[in-house]
Amino acid sequence: MPLEKTQPERNPEDAKFGRLDDLVGYHLRRASIFDLQGVGSALERANTRPVPMSVLLSITETPGISSAEICRSLGMQRANIVPILAELEERGLFLREADESDQRVQRLFPTRRGEEAATEWLALVAEHERSMLRRLTAAEQTELRRLLAKIWQEDGPKQG
Amino acid sequence: MPLEKTQPERNPEDAKFGRLDDLVGYHLRRASIFDLQGVGSALERANTRPVPMSVLLSITETPGISSAEICRSLGMQRANIVPILAELEERGLFLREADESDQRVQRLFPTRRGEEAATEWLALVAEHERSMLRRLTAAEQTELRRLLAKIWQEDGPKQG
DNA sequence: TCATAATGCTATGTCACATAACAGTCAATC
DNA sequence: GATTGACTGTTATGTGACATAGCATTATGA
Fold this sequence. Notes:
The structure is a homodimer.
Chain A: H1 24-44, H2 50-61, H3 67-74, H4 78-90, E1 94-98, E2 106-110, H5 112-132, H6 138-152
Antiparallel strand pairs in A: 1-2
Helix pairs in contact in A: 1-5, 2-4, 2-5
Chain A binds a DNA duplex through residues 49, 51, 66-68, 76-82, 102-106.
């Protein structure tokens, strides 16, 4: 074993999950809550929240994306993106444009203010992440992100 | 046709956060949601949910723990543990006993059935974890758990 | 003794998220 | 070329986890 926990006496035979603390999912949840609280308070300064930020970033990173595509990408329901888009639109952060060949879909494009807001919000979150990950080396941070992505991303040969 | 998320090439020097995908917190959230769904459906077979399982495990791992101690350990509010304890108690999984020196405190002890339920529930979750982590080596799983714990646990070596 | 704090608890609010249904549009099949 | 099914954006509504505020009781300590 590479690393040992400095916790109670563990029987080597007991290498299976025997305690709450052994569950990766427990630490996942605690770490995610910890992160969400930090992100939440960081984004308060920009008067927004995590999900609207993710939606805006989806638009700035993929101009012309549709709301349904954002929902599939972020794993959220179409119904729930409606008030979020309404809020971002009211703040003048993106524009809707009818698709040329499919009148059902609206293509979403960031405005100049939307680009600026995305950069600003991302900086706030990045500052929080630096604090949250301060006790991890750069290599550990990269490894952590890689392992997390491997958990939730589908098997299919997606992006590199 | 849906837009393909053609990503711009990443310059390795450009190590700063520029995209949603670069944020560890984003992957944390997605992985945690993924886990929570799996744990939820796994525990459905035992007619329970993640938080009651964590509470029961707190009792079996630390017999005589109080409800306030469980709340501090799990990071939850005292008000919210009340219906959970009521449910576990109704299922005969633990007993309350008055503290000898402090009449405010109830000490919680697992029953035989509580011990059995804890083992059974933990096995269900462990089975889910094996599936969730199937693409990670044993060393990677250990490393992931270590890095996650380093994120949310306070600086002092504290158990919880 | 009086102020402060902790425990277990009730009542209630909030907020993210899911479900169900809708009209309009598209595409494929018969 | 009607029809069937699927997809889009949307409204309305339910739900479930979680937080807040306050209570009576008990403990602590200046």
